[in-house]
Design a protein that fits this description.
With 411 residues, this protein is α/β, with parallel strands linked by helices. The protein folds into 2 domains: 280 residues, Rossmann fold; 87 residues, no CATH class. 38% of the residues lie in helices and 15% in strands. The strands form 2 sheets. The chain has a 9-stranded mixed β-sheet with strand order 1-2-3-5-4-6-7-10-11, sandwiched between helices. The protein has a two-stranded antiparallel ribbon with strand order 8-9. It is globular. InterPro entries: AB_hydrolase_fold, Lipase_secreted. Pfam families: LIP (PF03583).
Amino acid sequence: MTRPFLRFLGAKRNRVTDVLGALGGLALGLLLVATATAEPLYPRPDPDPFYAAPPDLAAHRPGDVLDVRELPPLLLFPGATVRLVEFRSSDSHGAPIAATTTIVTPLGNRPDAPLLSYQHFINSLGTECAVSRKLYSGDLNLMTTAPMLNVFLQQGWSIALPDHLGPQFALGAARLGGQITLDGIRAAKRLPELALHASPVVMAGYSGGGIATSWAAALQPTYAPELALAGAAIGGVPMNLVTMAEAVRDGQHPAFGLVMAVAMGLEREYPDQVALTSYLNPRGLAVRDALANSCTNELLAIGANTGVGDYVANTSVFDSPEARAVVEQNSLELYPGVPQIPMFEWHSPTDPLIPVDAIVNTDNRWCGAGVPLQTLRVSVPEHLSAALIGAPEVLPWLIGRVRGEPAPSNC
């Protein structure tokens, strides 16, 4: 586990630092709003009809399998079977949506072997940026993640890789990511050919992937109460978007293209509250159009070293109570529910990219509510180093959960 995971993180150090810095400005994008007529710019529909929602979508339960496609073998996962699964989920307002997850099963898959739902970060706005697409495009992010995932596959585990931004690629909609993650697990357990019906299930994710993972853990008691989970490991999670907005609302940012993309993603998910488009100046509209179907690298390149003042016609856009409500609804520190499963959480106490106080407050609230929580504070000065130092603790912790061992806690 340790060496491949360290290679995975080390290979991405420079670019991911920028990406995570943009996530540190995530809520800033939310404040580029008003309650005037919103005009979200949605992504181009995927040309593959597999991804389209069926006409009878509303007749299905969340987590019901809608379609399955076996994909070609991948050199990334030697000997594994790869399936793309479409399933019914729900958007942030409870309306039915069709979502997808890629399920990788090992050679000689054993019935009811463990399942890991791994929430990869998907900092993108376009349908071509889906995990199921990038697996076959030579994407560096997924190629460098593969060694870590292969450690689990070699132990006989299956891996679920959900497209947790949803069909509209609503970047920044954190609750949505949690719901899609849970419904993807439901779908995996309901699909007979996967033989996962009675499998122990754990979840994991760092930073952007940790957002979807932590929300899935917190929402499970009410959103998917029948779903048995053995535990979840989360690292470097932005727990409070309001705090992050207050920290980055002024000046320019090296990864502001991603910040702008988050505002666009939230406008897609909350068009009545996040009316970004109506406050953009001509340059802002042009950048919006350029970003609308872009993946991470393009987002970063287009908006590098710019800021709010470059794109809005009126800075009064920061005064929207409707937008603040959206920020609060997607801030885990402010969500009153707590996980009812063991949790592993790690971060650097001096991480400059996320509000560490929000993590500590959330940990303390979970501990006070009786959550079996093991925390790891690593003494390193920045975000990626924290991932490097904490990662070797994740594998044995996850293995312990699927074995049913008593969950450690250092509350």
